[in-house]
Amino acid sequence: MSVTAQQMTAALSEGAWYLEGRSPDGKTWLVHLSHLPFCIGRREECDLCLASPDISRQHAEIFSPDEQTLVVREFGSTNGTYVNRQRVHGDQQLKSGDVLHFGSQEFRIACRQNEQQASPSTRHNQQDTVIAAAIPGFGFFTSHRSFDDLLEKRAVLAYFQPLIRSQDDSVFGYELLGRGNFEGLPPSPGPLFEIAASLGRQIELSTLFRDIGIAQARVLPAGQQVFFNTVPEETKIKFLSHDLPKLRALAPDLAMTMEVHEAAVTDIKTMRQVRDLLKDLNIGLAYDDFGAGQARLLELIEVPPDVLKFDIALIRNIHERPPKSRQVIATLVNMARDLGIKSLAEGTEIKEEVEVCRELGFDYFQGYYFGKPAPNFV
Question: What structural domains does the chain harbor?
Answer without folding.
Answer: 15-138 (2.60.200.20), 153-366 (3.20.20.450)
